[in-house]
Amino acid sequence: MIVAFSISPAAGDETGGVSEAVAEAIRVVRASGLRNETNAMFTNLEGEWDEVMAVVKQAVDAVAAVSPRVSLVLKADIRPGYTGQLTAKVERLEQALGD
């Protein structure tokens, strides 16, 4: 499965920024060993249901350690029997575009 998720504390730091808290969540994701990528809006994570959801929970807990309230947006592509889709889906799209 692939999960796209975004975690943010309810309040930012003294400048309104949330990057330090979000960085804690990304550290958890990268330490997990699961395939992942981060862009400006979401972090994509690929693996089996239980391992992916465990990492998402750990990432939420990391942000919750610095904020009493946490926002989580999550979207999942659940396709049993398929792996490597984090990049394969994009490759198929590029082929369809003919570029």
From TrEMBL:
Record's GO cellular component terms: cytosol
Classification via Pfam families: Thiamine_BP (PF01910)
All residue ranges annotated as the Thiamine-binding protein domain in the record: 3-93
Xref: InterPro entries: MTH1187/YkoF-like (IPR029756), Thiamine_BP (IPR002767), UPF0045_domain (IPR051614)
Family according to the record: Belongs to the UPF0045 family.
UniProt protein name: Thiamine-binding protein domain-containing protein
